[in-house]
Amino acid sequence: MIVLVTGGARSGKSTFAQEYISKIGNKIVYIATAIPFDDGMKYRIKKHRDSRPKEWKTIEMYKSFEKLESNIDFLNSDSILFECMTLMVSNLLLEENIENADYETIENIEKKIFFEVKKIIEIMKKYNKNLIIVTNEVGMGIVPSYKLGNIFRDIAGRINQYLAKEADEVYITIAGIPLKLKG
């Protein structure tokens, strides 16, 4: 089963996703895509880590998901909580020189990011894992005034559409309340 959980910042996505996976999974692995690049992110990562049950295994990665196929914790799990897709997209975009890229180059970068997203789905299906994906809803805010922000919003929006199509269930959280959109 694939479940997509989306919503705005501090909307309750993570709490809902953790509660949901706790009901369907016995051996849970948390795939963390965040990179602790500053004190603020380090603090957020610590808070997320502290909020998870101690028996859950954590795998820190945001690309090269084929490596999961040799990861014992992944292989022994039945359910995966993937958090967060939009952080993964950010990390992959920041590896590139976007500001000086033409739109053909940006299109190729988007294809590389989609490759990673499709690899996640493919591996989860191959190993019959429950997958809960947390992502941010990025299309309801102000249009970014800078190139990288626009590119991020567009790619993340298209990835969210793809994931929603692939998902068995889709939820959006608003003010801590999950609303079921699909399934």
TrEMBL record:
**Which Enzyme Commission numbers does its entry carry?**
2.7.1.156, 2.7.7.62
**Xref: SUPFAM superfamilies:** P-loop containing nucleoside triphosphate hydrolases
Its UniProt pathway annotation is: Cofactor biosynthesis; adenosylcobalamin biosynthesis; adenosylcobalamin from cob(II)yrinate a,c-diamide: step 5/7; Cofactor biosynthesis; adenosylcobalamin biosynthesis; adenosylcobalamin from cob(II)yrinate a,c-diamide: step 6/7
What single Pfam family name could you report for this chain, choosing any that match? CobU
The lineage's top-level taxon is Bacteria
Matching InterPro entries, A to Z? CobU/CobP (IPR003203), P-loop_NTPase (IPR027417)
| Cleavable signal peptide | none
Q: Which reaction does it catalyse?
A: adenosylcob(III)inamide + ATP = adenosylcob(III)inamide phosphate + ADP + H(+); adenosylcob(III)inamide phosphate + GTP + H(+) = adenosylcob(III)inamide-GDP + diphosphate; adenosylcob(III)inamide + GTP = adenosylcob(III)inamide phosphate + GDP + H(+)
> Which keywords label this protein?
ATP-binding, Cobalamin biosynthesis, GTP-binding, Kinase, Nucleotide-binding, Nucleotidyltransferase, Transferase
Q: Give one GO molecular function term.
A: cobinamide phosphate guanylyltransferase activity
> Which of the seven top EC classes does this enzyme belong to?
transferase
Cross-referenced Gene3D superfamilies: P-loop containing nucleotide triphosphate hydrolases
The entry assigns this protein to a family as follows: Belongs to the CobU/CobP family.
- Functional description taken from the UniProt entry: Catalyzes ATP-dependent phosphorylation of adenosylcobinamide and addition of GMP to adenosylcobinamide phosphate.
List the NCBIfam families hit by this protein, alphabetically: PRK05800.1 (NF004469)
Name under which the protein is recorded: Adenosylcobinamide kinase
